[in-house]
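Re-run with default settings, no changes from the original entry. Doing this only to confirm the output is reproducible before filing.
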Amino acid sequence: VHVTFLEVTKTDGASVTFSPLKFTLRDLIFRTSCMIEGTKTRLASAAAVKGAKAGAVKLGAAETAASVMDGMVSLASKVADAAESPTAKAILPTATERTIKVDVTVDLIKELNVEEVDVKIKDFHTDVVVAEKVLGVKLVRNFVERAISAKASEVATRMARERTNRFMSRFQCCY
């Protein structure tokens, strides 16, 4: 999954809290584009395995879920390989990439002496409802959270470095 940021805005109730120890940005909206690699068959087989595991756990078979998963993964892999064979592709051509729009409302928290910005997703929407069901909201959420955290951490670190350099330049002695 590759995440591209399209726009960053805020909700009407957005807020910024700052103290010397941490800053918090609440209710920011990130509009993103997520490119997901994998054919429909691969994505569907992953969804089938996920569903089988959830079903086994709900039925109280948590201890056998691992063996059920191994069997399902093997079967799903064989089905996916067969569906992606050159013969099958000639009959049913399929794309290997899909792009979905994902909008998230987040809170960002940056604490002193912690490099990484913590991201909490509060609201999540995609333009493809099936993507939420097939890929699982949790999977896409994790990728988007990590992408936002990495970018926010990069920006915060750069800004802190620039401010530190400006401050230190005031006290440089002549060489």
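The longest helix spans residues 129-169. The beta strands are 2-18, 22-37, 97-111, 118-126.
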